[in-house]
Amino acid sequence: MSIPQERRVVTAIPGPKSQELLARKQAAVPPGIAHALPIFITRAGGGVVEDADGNSLIDFGSGIAVTSVGNSAPKVVESVRKQVADFTHTCFMVTPYESYVRVAEKLNELTPGDHEKRTVLLNTGAEAVENAVKIARSATGRQAVIVFDHGYHGRTLLTMTMTAKNLPYKQGFGPYAPEVYRVPLAYPFRWPTGPENCAEEAAAQAIDMIGKQVGAQNVAAVIIEPIAGEGGFIEPAKGFLPRIAEFCRENGIVFVADEVQTGFARTGHLFACEDEGVVPDLIATAKGIAGGLPLAAVTGRAEIMDKVHIGGLGGTYGGNPLACEAALAVMETIEEEDLVAKARRIGEIMLPRLHAMRERFEVIGDVRGRGAMIAVELVRPGTKEPNPAALAEVVRRCHAEGLLVLTAGTYGNVLRFLPPLVMPEHLLEEGLGILEKAFAAV
Ligand code: PLZ
Prior knowledge:
By secondary structure, the chain is an alpha/beta fold. The chain has two domains: about 15-60 and about 340-440, Aspartate Aminotransferase, domain 1, CATH 3.90.1150.10; about 75-335, Aspartate Aminotransferase, domain 2, CATH 3.40.640.10. It is built from 13 helices and 15 strands. The chain has helices at about 15-30, 60-65, 75-85, 100-110, 125-140, 155-160, 200-215, 240-250, 300-305, 320-335, 340-360, 390-400, 425-440; strands at about 40-45, 50, 55-60, 115-120, 145-150, 180-185, 220-225, 255-260, 280-285, 295-300, 365-370, 375-380, 405, 405-410, 415. A seven-stranded mixed β-sheet has the order 4-10-9-8-7-5-6, with helices on both faces. The chain has a four-stranded mixed β-sheet with strand order 1-2-3-13. The mean pLDDT is about 100. The site of ligand PLZ has 16 residues, from α5.
């Protein structure tokens, strides 16, 4: 790796150059687009990001689960360089090219289930989710869409409607899209009767609500994140996902897994659904698929995907040749560097350290996640009351020390970790040390 794999804090964070750039940003860009940490990045790779002031921060965010293979990963750079010199765009709907087909073949092969599949390529996670809904509606002739508490699916009209949390995603942006219904999620830490009964009770409630309020015969699709991402890295209690998938099967409903954040080795499986052997009818992917180039996909059962009329799917840039080359390089890198195992190893290092912190610090209510998708939920000591103030303080201290961390959660009280899967172990350990110090100080 050409960029030194070290933490280096040489100014305040953000430093003077970043602050100068931030002032320009504030004059040129609306405040609606905000930052987790306003340091301006000049270079990044492996487990670090470098800023304009010469600081090098340990990256526990991967640009929200995108650069799983690392920033500017060598194979990605090489493939994109070659492609950019050959041709940058034709529009796949005008004249096709082979890399799009190869990405589709790869996704058909790698996603759960050995049934015949098809893949359509798009640009963003939101676009993938929207297209999954279009396809499910077209295939079933039904309209209703079922989503879950704490769900996040994007910022477009339909996906914002499908997203659970009002602020910042929905406030003032209505009216929302019709025919979207929300049901409970099996959230073990906050289930009223405790985690043991959570899966069964939550599934029963969800299924009852669908039957009573919507009518299963009207439902085109049930869409769920196998681990709720923005909602706070909530792993549904074991048994919940399989029960919901079974209900969909019994009622001719298309079961859609939104694996935009959980996909591509992140959770210690190639796809998070595999953890419980759930085979979705359609799977939406994006983020980690192309190492930072904009690409997304819907992959699913041929008999469902093939129902959409000719010309019904598309977009100018979907499956852009640069993004396709990047995706092929990412998939090769995941295989060659066994990043599924690396993700597991990250979990094996992080979880025991975080559980030990939970014993020490009463402000940590819950530690959860799988592989390199790990979170801690902060509460007021002795209660389950969300503690966003403590979270803000921990984050501030981590950032000041050169550890880039992200937050999440319906109640704004979850600290989440999404390190690149190529994170060197010494940086992972160093990051955990900074975190421990931050908790001790709060
Ligand atoms: N589905 C599960 O996590 C994107 C959003 C950040 P796009 N998550 C990060 C923000 O505040 O905008 C996401 C996701 C899941 C869909 C999406 C949407 O993906 O590529 O951002 O459209």
